[in-house]
Amino acid sequence: SFLRYNSGTGTWDAPAALQFCALGVATDSDGNVCVSNRYTGAAAKFTPDGATIWSANAQVASEARGTVVDSNNDVWVVHREASRLSKFDGVNGSHLGVYYSGLYPYTYSDATGLGLRGSVEPLGTWTVIADSNETDSMWEQISWTSAEPDGTSVTVQVRSSVDSLSWSNWESANNGIGLIETPDGQYLEIKTTLQITDGGEISPVLFDLTVISNQSFCGDLDHDGDVDGDDRNILRGALRTHTGDAGFIEEADYDEDGDIDYSDYREWYKCYKAFISG
């Protein structure tokens, strides 16, 4: 029915009280072992030590190609040749019905993923890369909104890059608190990890995440994070100045011809229109 491996001794044994050929094996949330008979379609549940909890006759007279446990600990048997699924009560093995599937369903074991969930602390990650479109953006802060039931966690790590090829070391971000170790760069990679720990049952949820950078905008001559009338007045004050003149502002020389004139003003106005249009 199933084999048991002892990792301490490196040996195998067959502890099940009932022995038959099985093509699929799964475990429930209590660690019990569920198997189905390859030839008859019958199902059985055993304790980890092999004692029989229940044994049930087949509901479909067809080969059993897999055994699956659902979130209620009920047991499903996959009948490939009959294109059917049969369901057994997880507590006592009573018949709960036969269901149509797609043609020739095929799985051997943990199709629901609950076996894995029961053996490790489940976690998932979401990773995204922010592009500031500025070579030396200063990445200041990460903030997010999440729901973290007891026994769960949401953690965020960041790292930066100037070329999206070589990256800085990861820094663990604190929600709403300034970053300390992440260097300037055009790109910021954010990795969010959502994990169930300490016996938690409900997954955490990430609702939103915000990245704040000291990013300069085209036309933002006073570097206050927007493009407005104050920037226009700064540019007007620098009109007709040349490189080396008092009042010359190099970054306002948009056409890079060494002076600030109305062609630069037209370029600034394009920046302004782009900013207010979002």
Can you offer a commentary on this structure?
With 278 residues, the protein is mainly beta. The protein has 3 helices and 16 strands. The strands form 5 sheets. Strands 3-4-5-6 form a 4-stranded antiparallel β-sheet, with no helix packed on it. The protein is elongated. The mean pLDDT is 89.
Helices and strands in order, then pairings?
Layout: E1 4-6, E2 11-13, E3 25-27, E4 33-36, E5 43-46, E6 52-56, E7 66-69, E8 75-79, E9 84-88, E10 95-100, H1 114-119, E11 123-131, E12 139-147, E13 152-161, E14 171-173, E15 187-196, E16 205-213, H2 229-238, H3 262-276
Antiparallel strand pairs: 1-2, 3-4, 4-5, 5-6, 7-8, 8-9, 9-10, 11-15, 12-16, 13-14, 13-15
Helicity, as a percent range = 10-25%
Shape: elongated
Overall pLDDT level: 89
Terminal residue distance: 65 Å
Profile the largest sheet: 4 strands, antiparallel
Low-confidence stretches: none
SSE string? EEEEEEEEEEHEEEEEEHH
Helix and strand composition category: mainly beta
In what order do the strands lie side by side in the largest sheet? 3-4-5-6
Specify the number of helices.
3
Report the strand count. Answer: 16
Portion in strands: 25-35%
